[in-house]
Structures are given as C-alpha cells and as structure tokens.
Amino acid sequence: MTTDADVIIAGAGPAGSLAAYELAGRGISVLILEKSSFPRYKVCGAGLTYKILREIPFDVSPVFETQIHTIVFSSGFRKSFKRTSPEPMLYCTNRDKLDDFLLQKAVNAGARVIHGAKVMELTQEKEFVTVVTRERTFHSKLVIGADGASSAVARSAGLRENILPGLAWEAEVRADPAVVKAFSQTIFLDWGSFPGGYGWVFPKGDHFSIGVGGPANLSKWMMPYYEKLLDYLAEGAWDCNVGPQEEKGSAGSKMQNAKCKIEVAETMSLKSWPIPVRVKRSMFHNGRVLVAGDAAGLTDPLTGEGIYYAVRSGILAARSCHAYLQAETTSLESYTKAVNDELMKELLEANRIKHLFNAVPLKIHYFVRDSDRAWKAFVKILRGERLYADVPAGFGKWKVMWGAACRVSKWISEYREWRKAGRS
Ligand SMILES: Cc1cc2nc3c(=O)[nH]c(=O)nc-3n(C[C@H](O)[C@H](O)[C@H](O)COP(=O)(O)OP(=O)(O)OC[C@H]3O[C@@H](n4cnc5c(N)ncnc54)[C@H](O)[C@@H]3O)c2cc1C
User: Fold this and answer.
1) Considering the entire predicted model, what is its pTM?
2) Which terminus of the chain has fewer Cβ atoms in its 10 Å neighbourhood, N or C?
3) Counting Cβ atoms within 10 Å, is residue 164 exposed (0-12), middle (13-18) or buried (19+)?
4) Cα 169 to ligand 1 centre (Å)
C-alpha cells in the first residue's frame, strides 16, 4: 500500500503543529489535515504561562502582545486584592496569530498541510490507517489526532474515556485604548463564585478577552456570571490597589485611590467552547493512532490552561511516532506511558487542588493574599519552576494530612457542584 505520508496529523492547533514540527525536523514525512483556513479565529484566552517557553523549541516571542506581572484576584466579586511578580508570569496573544505562526514553523520544517480537510473518521488496518475526509480518503502508517475538543480521531479510535466536560464562554471586547494600555500587564481573576467556576480578563494588544468557565453541568450559571463580571468591571468595583495583608477600603488602599474600571465599548465576538478534562490515567493510543492536546482531554482542571499541555503532548506524540517508525519500538505504548507519567501526574494533582479550592474557596483566596510563600509557589508553578506535584511536599510535616484533606474536599466539592447543578 502506498501511503500519503508516514504520519497524518488531524488538526493544526498547537498540538498538531508542534508534533508536525518535531517529526518533519527528524526527516519523517508528515501531512496535516486541517478543517479551517488559516489564519482562523479560535475562542481562547491565549494566555501562555511562562513555562511554555521551556517547551517550545523555537522563539515564540514575536507573537506575544502583552506580558503579565500583576494578577488582581477576587472571590465571588468580593475581597479583591492584587499580587505582583517582578518576573513575567504569562504572555497574552491571539490564537489566529499564534496558531498561524506555529503552523508556519512546521511547514518550514518540511510538513505539508491541506486546509479545508475535515477528518470524519478513520479505520485501522494491519499495516496502515485509512483517514476519511469529506473530499477524499488518505492513508498513512500512523495518525496523530490533534483535532481539538470534539476530536473525530479520538471518537473513531475509542480514546474518549475518563473525560469530564468543561465549558467556557469568552468575548473579545474593545474598551477605551487608554484603559487597555493601563492594564496591559494585569489580568483579573474571579474565582469561588460557583464550584469549579472562574472568570477572567486578559489584556491583548488592542482589546481585552473576557470570559468565564467551569464544569459543563453548571453551564446555565455561566451567562449570568459573565454579565455580573461585566457589571463589576464597569462599576470599577475591583479594587486593584489592595495589596496583600490589606482589606479593601483600608487606609493603604484609599491612599492610592484608583479603580479597575473597564467599560465595554464593543463586543466583537462572544462564543462558547468545550474544555475537556481528563480525570484518570488512561490510554492515549490505540494501535497506530495517538491523541494529543484537547483531543486527549489534556487541560488543567484548575485553570483551564490547555496550550501548554497541547504543546507537550504534541512533542511526546512525535517522539513516540519517530521511535516506532525507526523500529526502535514495536508499539506506541511509550506515548501512553509518557503522558500518564509526565502530564497526567501533574493534572491529577491540579484536580486535587481544585477540589480543595472548591471546598474552602475563601481560605485559599486569603492564603494567596496573605502568605508570601503561597504566592511565590503560585508564581513558580506558572513559570515552570515548581510542579503541582511538589505542592504536598510544601506542607512539610503536615504532608500526611494532604491526602486525607484532598479526599474530604473531593466529596464536598462534588456535593457543592451537584447541589448548584440542581438549583434553578
Ligand atoms: C474560552 C476558552 C479560553 C481558553 N483560554 C486558554 C488560555 O488562556 N490559555 C491556555 O493555555 N488554554 C486556554 N484554553 C484551552 C485551549 O484553547 C486548548 O486547550 C488548546 O487550544 C488545545 O490545543 P489543541 O491543539 O489540542 O486543539 P485546538 O487548538 O482546538 O486545535 C485543533 C485544530 O483542529 C482543527 N480541527 C478540529 N476538528 C477537525 C477535524 N475533524 N479535521 C481536521 N481538523 C480539525 C481545528 O480547526 C483546530 O485548528 C481556553 C479554552 C477556551 C474554550
């Protein structure tokens, strides 16, 4: 059987493009099938945590629009405070720009791409895989499913188990350019409004991305929450001058006397999109097919961050495909093992922290506000200098209590989510 490429990759998001870049750079023939025409809009905060710089094997800074040093937190729109880091914690961009840049790198490395090719399904034979798009059928030795949250590849290959559906709504909004500039180094984060729910404001070069997200079974609460977030911003109720240890309205905060007032001048788009969250160690390959990024449900259950995990899993997928094609291994098992050992270990710990947060949201909120140690640990996780998996060790002699506290908070968190889902 003549194949169209050694590896076909479905989807040219960060997972697909990084996998293609790695494979093409190692001399493997790669064909990307992408349903859209690039550059294309994708609903996403496009916040890149600093740690992603350690993973992307080329300079991605040309697409950065803003660099974040400050986070203003509130808990259910109360008790706001700000925290600052001298070192950048994240960068914001737009996905049309980022994804086009990453795809171009893959093409320059030697990958081929067909736009407007939507993968519908695939079937595996002994020696190859048949990939069906609307227009025609393709064949390859291996397939990487990097086709996002509603992955046709993962569905066809039976790789969708243990995924909890999340959902997020986000708008790109214009505001007074002076206000956009004033907050170009600041993100706003509300958490604790409902179990697993959060709202954010990310500054871009010439506008803000404003969104809310949480478990999909609480979707009915998301639009009212989004509207409340806009009201809160328009009122200037978010006090971004309250530092750690200060209560809102205290002398220290009044002295600085400035508010975070953001009034929406124009909403350019408002859309929702799923955020799939893998909650157990699982299979990430089946025969000649692997899944990466959102197609594999690799998103942070605490923050919704997915680009970092898309990049990492795309690179891991490429390495396993390369080893298999070089006859260094006889199966793609090494990929499932690497994802479980390196990525799921982190994501499962993040899930435990999420439950703890849902059980005692205000306590964690105050902990981040009042404890320099907690804040520094938070920054280090964003910068990739610490892992979620290091958090239990940070409790020193109380570490033994960590597992028990996480188990109890999981029950409380799930009960709260269930009760909220049942409310009208
Ligand atoms: C509202 C919102 C805000 C977010 N904010 C952030 C954030 O600030 N930071 C962060 O790190 N993460 C964020 N995420 C998560 C992030 O968007 C995803 O985790 C990330 O895009 C996953 O990358 P990917 O390459 O796996 O998939 P995608 O980026 O979804 O790329 C998949 C690609 O596959 C293509 N495709 C889909 N189906 C097919 C098909 N059948 N055939 C061929 N091609 C197909 C799509 O057109 C797309 O180009 C957010 C998500 C949402 C919903």
Assistant:
1) 0.94
2) C
3) middle
4) 14
Q: Which domains does the chain have, with CATH numbers?
A: 5-41+95-162+280-349 (3.50.50.60), 63-92+165-273 (3.90.660), 355-422 (no CATH)
Identify whether the C-beta of residue 167 lies closer than 8 Å to the C-beta of residue 274.
yes
CA angle (88 as vertex; 84, 93 as ends), nearest 5: 115
**CA 133 to ligand 1: nearest atom:** 42
Beta bridge partners of 167: 214, 274
Q: Which of 38, 44, 64 to mutate to test the pocket of ligand 1 (most atoms within 8 A of CB)?
A: 44
CA of 202 to the centre of ligand 1 (A): 17
Pocket of ligand 1 (CB under 6 A): 10-16, 33-36, 42-47, 118-119, 146-148, 152, 168, 170, 211, 273, 275, 293-295, 299, 304-308, 310
58 CA → ligand 1 middle, Å? 20
pLDDT in tens, the chain (424 residues): 789 999 999 999 999 999 999 999 999 999 999 999 999 999 999 999 999 999 999 999 999 999 999 999 999 998 899 999 999 999 999 999 999 999 999 999 999 999 999 999 999 999 999 999 999 999 999 999 999 999 999 999 999 999 999 999 999 999 999 999 999 999 999 998 888 899 999 999 999 999 999 999 888 889 999 999 999 999 887 766 665 544 444 433 433 445 678 889 999 999 999 999 999 999 999 999 999 999 999 999 999 999 999 999 999 999 999 999 999 999 999 999 999 999 999 999 999 999 989 999 999 999 999 999 999 999 999 999 999 988 887 777 777 788 888 888 889 988 888 888 887 6
DSSP structure class, residue 238: S
* CB-count burial class (<10 Å; 0-12, 13-18, 19+) for 289: buried
How many CB atoms are located within 10 Å of the residue 341 CB? 10
In 270-398, alpha helices (H):
307-325, 333-338, 345-359, 361-370, 372-383
Whole-angstrom distance, CA of residue 112 vs CA of residue 322: 17
Q: Distance (Å, rounded) from C-alpha 256 to C-alpha 206? A: 26
C-alpha to C-alpha distance for 80 and 243, rounded to whole angstroms: 9
